[in-house]
Amino acid sequence: MKFPKALSAGKCSEKCSLAGSSAAASIETAPPDRGCSGVPPGEAPTEQGKRVCEVPISTITGAPLPTRKLEVALRRLRASMQDCTRCDALVRCRSRVVPGDGSVPADVVFVGIAPGRLGGDRTGIPFSGDRSGQLLRRMIERSGLKRVFITNLVRCNPRDAAGRNRDPTADEIAQCRGHLRAEFSIARPRIVACLGVMAWKELAGRAAPFTPMGGRPAEIDGLVLFPMYHPAFVNRGAYPIRSYARDFARLSRLSAGIR
Ligand code: SF4
Predict the structure, then answer these.
(1) Is residue 78 within 6 Å of ligand 1 at its C-beta?
(2) What domains can be seen in the chain, in order of their start residue?
């Protein structure tokens, strides 16, 4: 299994500010470019405009490891993230670092945007303790998916000047890419469900159309990327719960077919 694009720490020198919009308001719109324009940090364009992975693929595709070894590796990784101070603004507003959590190896990895102020930032577990987390976990349970891993593009809660959730900046996403890459290398999924357009664009590329409603998954370098709406988008009534449940059933069938 390969990564569809580089997940290495970015080199953009711009520091993020606390000004911004709420995450819920822009979950289904493309992330604004906040100064890291052109080729996103950590990516290398090829001559065909495709992107190549800077991560040594052997770290991801090596021989299968016993579950116990993966669990130990995940525990160590989670501990190593706790002192991360790469993003100045997020260090000031987060309550804690919220690493990815779930089964390793995983059949499906869910990637959201960032821990929520009332969710992961409070509980320490991504997608827990708030309405988005409740909906996501209910859908996973109903769909019969068992071995899942849940994480975000960034591991610290971004807030605006008024203390509300905001979207992470391109720089913050780039800074946390190494953590996402490390989680992927331990979870070793065949399918990554991208929750919202921001996660989709980060993994499938900015040019890839985001079409969760009956849309087809993209297969890039052996990794199946599955587009889905973010649960917050569904919770605010922009997409029917029944359709969302159908999307999860489709994801579950896809996972069963790939196993
Ligand atoms: S968002 Fe990621 S890279 Fe930035 S401080 Fe938090 S853990 Fe570190």
Answers:
(1) no
(2) 24-258 (3.40.470.10)
Q: Which band of pLDDT confidence, cut at 50, 70 and 90, is reported for residue 248?
A: very high
Query: In 15-68, where do the E strands start and end?
Result: 44-45, 51-52
Pocket test for ligand 1, best of 152, 172, 173 (most atoms within 8 A of CB): 172
Residue nearest to atom 7 of ligand 1 (CA): 155
Inter-residue contact 234 to 244 (CB < 8 Å): yes
For residues 79-102, give the mean pLDDT.
Answer: 97
86 CB within 6 A, ligand 1: yes
Mean pLDDT for the stretch of residues 136-155? 98
Q: What is the edge-to-edge ordering of all strands in the sheet holding 218-220?
A: 101-102, 148-152, 108-112, 191-195, 223-228, 218-220
Token pair of 20 as six digits = 């911004």
- Give nearest CA residue, ligand 1 atom 2: 176
Q: Which two tokens stand for residue 35?
A: 């100064």
At residue 148, the 3 state secondary structure works out as strand
Which ligand 1 atom sits nearest the alpha carbon of residue 90?
5
Residues 212-237 have a mean pLDDT of: 92
Q: Is 96 in the pocket of ligand 1 (CB under 6 A)?
A: no
